[in-house]
Write a structure and sequence with these properties.
Number of domains: 2
Strand content: under 5%
CATH class of the largest domain: Mainly Alpha
Distance between the termini: 26 Å
Order of helices and strands: HHEEHHHHHHHHHHHHHH
Largest sheet: 2 strands, antiparallel
Strand order of the largest sheet: 1-2
CATH topology of the largest domain: Na+/H+ antiporter like fold
Number of strands: 2
CATH superfamily of the largest domain: Na+/H+ antiporter like domain
């Protein structure tokens, strides 16, 4: 039993540690973007992201401003990692069993429906109604960062619930983007892209994987989707579904074969003594050991591990720099009503939706409270579901085209995230004070 718990806790602790440290960098990038946008360098900073970068090849041209390359290109990698997390959790993790997945599933559904409905009601008659998807999203980096500030007083059940909730919420956001924020669709491109995905899925089903073939396929699918009208980041999620979870060598075989290879390496070392240069036999042994290692780590685990740091420490901060910069102004151009409606929907809508749907699922005996977690603590952590910084900014960039509306929405997102994060911190701190 202890070994099983350790197998669950080890990757969980590593994941939380990574997300927590990256949240500091993400926060710093956000503050820097806001500072530059409200400084004498305002014009130079904001215009930087509008500079065009063009790829011009025979018969093919792709020209976009820098912020579009970030939102359509780099964020496709972000969504790819989200897709890998979703697939892993559904097949082997917290979402692999109905009872385990039910509570965060209901919470995520409530955390999407209630904020969207509340925003629609509050914003009736006001400009910007198409941004109803903005208050739905949750940001796991900041949320886990806040929980970690509270230390060991926070039960592990709350952290696991929040992680599972955020993953399902991200999936919901992906579906919202695909169905409601994609326009002027070119169906031929979409069907060709889906056909490539289907072929890669078939290869994955037979446990065949080549990083070169899958990378080339992913690049083609991304380009097709980019030119089809459906948002290119959806290609990232679909490609993640094609990556095999199974490894080609089981753990026992790895141990036996690896031990034999290391024994061969040692025997060569003992025969030739300590030398600066490796022998040919030792070089071949190292090559064989590397191949064995690659065959033992599943492609999905390898990619998730390799890309998580890049996404957390580079892509998300760059996205924040390009999208969080807004010049605060109380001029007539600022739609303060829209800002307040977004902020209120993010905070109040998520608390009501997450907690009420969770409570209902438990009372109907569909789900159960996590171990050592009570309803007060569940209500407290619901506030953190309203902290929707990264995904909310992303949906904002899709929902609106008017720069004044975009900036007003950004102000609402920042305000709502700060309030949700602050209230969440103190609510969780108060409800877990006996655990300190």
């Amino acid at each position: 039993m202890k070994k099983k718990i350790q197998r669950i806790k080890a990757p969980l602790n590593q994941f939380i540690k990574l997300e927590t440290s990256s949240s500091i960098i993400l926060f710093g990038a956000t503050i820097l973007a806001l500072a530059l946008a409200n400084s004498p360098l305002n014009e130079e900073f904001l215009n930087l992201w509008k500079e065009y970068i063009t790829i011009d090849l025979p018969g093919f041209e792709l020209s976009k401003p820098i912020y579009k390359w970030i939102n359509d290109g780099l964020m496709a990698i972000f969504f790819f990692v989200i897709g890998l997390e979703i697939k892993r959790e559904v097949l082997t993790g917290e979402l692999s069993h109905i009872k385990k997945a039910s509570l965060p599933l209901f919470a995520a559904v409530g955390g999407m429906i209630a904020p969207a409905v509340l925003f629609t009601v509050l914003n009736t008659g006001n400009a910007g109604g198409e941004g109803w998807g903005i208050p739905m999203a949750a940001d796991i980096a900041f949320s886990l960062g806040i929980l970690t500030l509270l230390g060991s007083r926070v039960p592990s059940g709350i952290k696991i619930f929040l992680m599972a909730f955020a993953i399902i919420d991200d999936l919901g956001a992906v579906l919202v983007i695909a169905f409601f924020y994609s326009t002027d669709l070119i169906w031929s491109n979409i069907f060709i892209g889906l056909g490539i995905v289907a072929v890669l899925l078939l290869l994955s089903r037979f446990n065949y994987y080549s990083k070169y073939i899958f990378f080339l396929g992913g690049l083609i699918v991304w380009t097709l989707f980019l030119k089809s009208g459906i948002h290119a980041t959806i290609a990232g999620v679909l490609m993640a579904m094609t990556i095999p979870l199974r490894s080609k060598t089981d753990n026992h075989s790895f141990y036996e074969k690896g031990k034999k290879l290391l024994d061969n390496f040692r025997s060569e070392y003992e025969t030739n003594g300590e030398e600066t240069m490796l022998t040919k036999k030792q070089m071949h042994t190292i090559d064989d050991l590397q191949v064995l290692t690659e065959r033992t780590i599943s492609p999905l685990q390898h990619l998730e591990h390799a890309l998580h740091g890049w996404v957390s420490y580079l892509i998300m901060p760059i996205f924040a720099l390009a999208n969080a910069g807004v010049a605060f102004s109380l001029s007539g151009d600022t739609n303060t009503s829209l800002s307040l409606n977004i902020a209120i929907s993010m905070v109040i809508g998520n608390v009501i939706g997450i907690f009420s749907f969770s409570w209902l699922s438990i009372k109907l005996n569909i789900a159960e409270l996590p171990q050592n977690v009570n309803f007060k603590q569940l209500a407290a952590v619901s506030f953190l579901g309203g902290l929707g910084f990264t995904m909310s900014l992303f949906i904002n960039s899709l929902a609106y085209t008017d720069i004044n509306i975009i900036n007003s929405a950004k102000m609402g997102i920042l305000l709502g995230s700060v309030i949700a994060g602050t209230l969440g911190y103190f609510a969780v701190r108060y409800t877990t004070r006996n655990n300190a």
